[in-house]
Amino acid sequence: MAGGGGAWKVAFADFVTAMMALFMLLWILNQDEKVKGEVQQYFNTRFKSVTKMSVGIIPIENADLIEARRAVFDNASAIDLQFMRRINDDIIRVFADNPNFIDMKTMRVQMTSEGLLIEFYNDPNRRLFQGPTALLTKYGQTVFDTLSYVLARHKSTRVEVEGHTASDVELDGERVDTWALSTDRALIARYAMDRKAMKSEQFIKVAGFSSSKPLKEYKHDLNHSHHDRVTIMVRAGVQRY
């Protein structure tokens, strides 16, 4: 074609590049969390700091990186990523590497702009508490004892414990005061960890939030069992003020 030049080649090359990018995206979306984490690590610097105003992207096995605002935690400065990674690795090693000990569906570990957020769900199949009370089950006692030993090895950590419940909680046909219940559960969780291995000075906050802080992914169902949980925020060397 006279005067046609090779413009069609450029358009074809752009089309092929776009198709390759699409297939690569579809492949990544179909991979497990380990592969996604490795791809994420490749495209993001390992040395990006995480502050309250800016969330860095780092790969954590069995955890999603989000700018979590699941609970009203106290302000904090930039966190030590390497230190938090070591704690995360210890927790994963103790819990996730032993499938006979705990079902990972009953817990979640997330790196956030505040620190390391650990959520334990009072799942109907693996209950932390005996019914709608603050009494720990044997399983719940084991969970908090184990976490206590992990965090006690990192003496500079500072911990915040929060209790949360679903919207409607009843005992013998009577509605339960979920503010009192969530607070009592947070206190019991703190006591269990303090009694076992952690030091009292590691705890900087204990609070109950009833059903006022539902999990975002279950906001359509305020009685979902995962709203009924204890959350623990782990910070690096944050002092009480």
Description:
- By secondary structure, this protein is of the alpha+beta class.
- The chain has one domain: 60s Ribosomal Protein L30, Chain: A, CATH 3.30.1330.60.
- 34% of the residues lie in helices and 15% in strands.
- The chain has helices at 7-29, 33-43, 81-95, 138-152, 178-196, and strands at residues 107-111, 116-121, 157-164, 170-171, 174-175, 203-208, 229-236.
- The strands form 2 sheets. A 5-stranded mixed β-sheet has the order 1-2-7-3-6.
- Helix 3 (81-95) packs antiparallel against helix 4 (138-152) and helix 4 (138-152) packs across helix 5 (178-196).
- The chain is elongated, with a radius of gyration of 22 Å.
- The protein starts with 6 loop residues before the first helix and ends in a 5-residue tail after the last strand.
- Residues 45-77 have low confidence and may be disordered.
Q: Could you provide a short overview of the structure?
A:
The chain is α+β, with helices and mostly antiparallel strands and 241 residues long. Helix content is 34%, strand content 15%. It is elongated.
Percent helix range: 25-40%
Q: Could you tell me the radius of gyration in angstroms?
A: 22 Å
**Strand and helix order:** HHHEEHEEEHEE
CATH C-level category: Alpha Beta
CATH superfamily: OmpA-like domain
Strand order in space, largest sheet: 1-2-7-3-6
CATH domain topology = 60s Ribosomal Protein L30, Chain: A
